[in-house]
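Researcher: Excuse me, C-alpha cells okay?
***
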Amino acid sequence: MTNDADDTKVQQSVEIKAPVERVWRALVDADTRRGWWSYLDLDPVVGGQVKETWEGPEGANQTTGVVTELAEGSRLAMDWADDGWPASTHVEFTLRATESGTVVQVRESGLDRIPDGDTVADEHRAGWQMHLTNLRKLVERG
C-alpha cells in the first residue's frame, strides 16, 4: 500500500498494447467506455459530472463527483464520493506512451478521510485493477 505525503492509498496500472490516442478515446468517449465500464457516466470536461451506479450487498449505490482536471491524451482527474461518505476521494488517470503501447495508471487519494478507509482502499484496489483489465481487453481487441 502506498501512503506517501499525498495520502495516496490506491495505485494500480496496466500496460496496453495500443497507442495513447486509442486508449484515451476508450476512457473519454461514452460509446467506447460502455464496452469496459458500462455503468459510468462521465462528461469529460473540467467541471463535468461523474456518476457511477453499481450494485452492492445492500442494493443499488451511487458514486458521484466532478472532473477536476483534463489534459487531452494524458490525464483525467476527478473528485467523487459514494452515497453517505463524509468526504470525497481524488482519482487520477494518467496515460504514458511506451515503446509497445500505453501505460495507464490510476491513483486514488483521500480514503483516509472516510470511515474504514483502509478496507475501502483494499476494495478499490481490486476494483481499479478489474477496470484496468477490462480496459486493456477492450482496447487490445480493437
